[in-house]
Design a protein that fits this description.
Blueprint lengths: L4 E4 L9 H16 L3 E4 L13 H12 L5 E6 L2 E5 L11 H14 L2 E4 L3 H13 L15 H9 L5 E4 L6 E6 L3 E6 L7 E3 L7 H11 L4 E5 L6 H11 L5 E5 L2 E2 L15 H6 L4 H10 L13 H7 L10 E2 L2 H14 L2 H14 L5 H6 L1 H11 L9 H5 L12 H7 L4 H12 L7 H15 L4 H12 L7 H24 L1
Parallel strand pairs: 1-2, 2-3, 10-11, 12-13
Antiparallel strand pairs: 3-4, 5-6, 6-9, 7-8
Length: about 500
């Protein structure tokens, strides 16, 4: 059986879009499900849109997401390197290859030189639009003899090379998601294959590269569906076997519009900065347009690989729901190893000014306890500053009337006083003290149950509910607890 080979071929035009990472993910899952290979290729033939550093960002984003490819473009010690038997994997390094096949198409009569100026093309399009026609090239240079065209090229005239489509030909192909598709060439354009700058268009480069790199399945966004018949025809005239096609539905927002920067976060970088775990984001993205047979929603990468198939990809656009993402990500946070979670959380604590690097290093176990205490209630790491505020603000504010009322209870002064007395007998709060203090207060005051625990919690945090009281006591420590007791006595009792 032929080895499945799939590729992700982004353009280095900026940060990687959430829709693009899903495309990469589906390619990766299908390749790995079938014990195939996954390749990263860089399509950089549109030099006007090239962004410096974008290739590096692409590689880092894929690595962060856990989408690991087998060959292509890698980053080693800050330098871009290429590995594999089918390189180069960067299109701008393959210009001679494309030129060879463009020349072959010209000699066979399947492509032709076009000398039309931009002004003429604009004029033709405007005229077609005015008549209510679909704008396309009118074939002005189509019937130039090859001899004449070559003379004009030799004389230094600027040109492009166009694909010569046959008239009134049905081009048929099967898409795994969309089924059988038929498009007639009368509804198509003589596509530019080689631009005046010597660079191929996407249409030429993608066909040549996919063939030479033995790509078996083309998995890409549905925006490329109208271009696919041109690619099918190129395979045909070049005498190459065409791959299997899969066109994925677009990732949409809740208003069923394409995700765009205008409407909020759209890049992997955005979600990474907000503290989404790669496991959470990838798990959720897999479900945007696909579902497993068992409808399970919380899945590891290994489980996604095991269950993935294109037969279960929807034909309609997948809705990107932030609330659902938060729910999925929250689950992965709760499952996360506490040391790993703490390391990821420390930058958020430092940035918010609650700790510095010295505290993070010297009091790591204390920091870890803070994170473990809030772990259950996190949906993303950017929530950490808000969730930990109760441990760093000694000016206690009861969260509502019930909390305030609880502090007015007649037993509260004796409970707080007993707490103070116990604290004054020790140098610092350790885990043992935190675990036993409430029993000691109960014994010395006779107060127990709700009347003991509720006012203590409110006096220490201002909240009726929250993390385990033992953890709160340990995290706050002696000095902060004494300050809070004093503040509450002065302001609310």
């Amino acid at each position: 059986m032929e080895e499945f080979r799939l590729r992700f071929a982004p353009s280095p035009t900026g940060y990687i879009h959430i829709g693009s990472i899903r495309t990469a993910l589906y390619n990766y899952l299908f390749a790995k499900h079938n014990n195939g290979k996954f390749i990263l290729r860089i399509e950089d033939t549109d030099r006007t849109r090239y962004v410096e550093g974008a290739i590096e960002n692409l590689i880092e984003s894929l690595d962060w997401a856990g989408i690991h490819y087998d060959e292509g473009v890698f980053l080693e010690n800050g330098k871009i390197v290429q590995k594999g038997d089918f390189g180069p994997y960067i299109q701008s390094e393959r210009l001679d290859i494309y030129k060879k096949y463009v020349d072959e198409l010209i000699e066979k009569g399947d492509a032709y030189y076009c000398f039309c100026s931009k002004e003429r093309l604009d004029s033709v399009r405007d005229e077609q639009k005015a008549k209510g026609l679909v704008p396309k090239y009118d074939g002005f240079c189509r019937n130039l003899s090859l001899e004449e065209a070559k003379k004009r090229v030799a004389n230094g005239e600027e040109y492009v090379v166009r694909l010569k489509l046959p008239h009134n030909k049905d081009i048929k192909f099967h898409d795994i998601v969309r089924g059988d598709i038929v498009i007639n060439t009368e509804d198509m354009d003589d596509q530019v294959l080689l631009k005046s700058d010597g660079f191929p268009t996407y249409h030429m480069a993608v066909v040549v590269d996919d063939h030479l790199m033995n790509i078996t399945h083309i998995v890409r966004g549905e925006e490329w569906l109208p271009s696919t018949p041109k690619h099918i025809y190129l395979y045909e005239v070049l005498g190459w076997e065409k791959p299997v096609y899969v066109h994925l539905p677009t990732v949409l927002n809740k208003e069923r519009k394409k995700l765009s920067k205008r409407h909020g976060d759209v890049s992997v970088e955005d979600f990474k900065a907000k503290g989404y775990l790669p496991e959470g984001l990838i798990n959720y993205l897999a479900l945007v347009g696909w579902s497993p047979e068992d409808n399970e929603e919380i899945l590891s990468m290994e489980e996604l690989i095991e269950k993935f198939s294109f037969e279960r990809v929807s034909k309609t656009g997948g809705i990107f729901d932030i609330d659902k993402l938060d729910w999925v990500n929250g689950h992965h946070i709760r499952e996360c190893d506490i040391d790993k979670l703490t390391e990821m959380s420390i930058p958020y604590l430092i940035e918010s000014g609650y700790i510095d690097e010295k505290v993070a290093k010297e009091n790591y176990e204390w920091v870890k306890t803070i994170i473990a205490t809030i772990q259950e209630n996190l949906s993303k790491l950017s929530e950490i500053p808000e969730k930990v505020e109760i441990f760093f603000n000694n000016k206690i504010e009861p969260e509502d009337e019930n909390a305030l009322e609880m502090l007015k209870g007649e037993q509260v002064p004796s409970v707080l006083n007993a707490f103070r007395e116990e604290l004054n007998q020790i140098e610092e709060v350790d885990e043992e003290f935190a675990k036993t203090i409430m029993k000691k207060i109960q014994k010395s005051t006779g107060v127990k149950g709700k009347n003991l625990f509720m006012p203590t919690r409110i006096a220490l945090t201002g909240n009726n509910h929250g993390p385990e009281l033992v953890n709160i006591i340990y995290i706050l420590g002696k000095e902060n607890i004494l300050k809070r007791i004093e503040y509450v006595e002065e302001n609310y009792i």
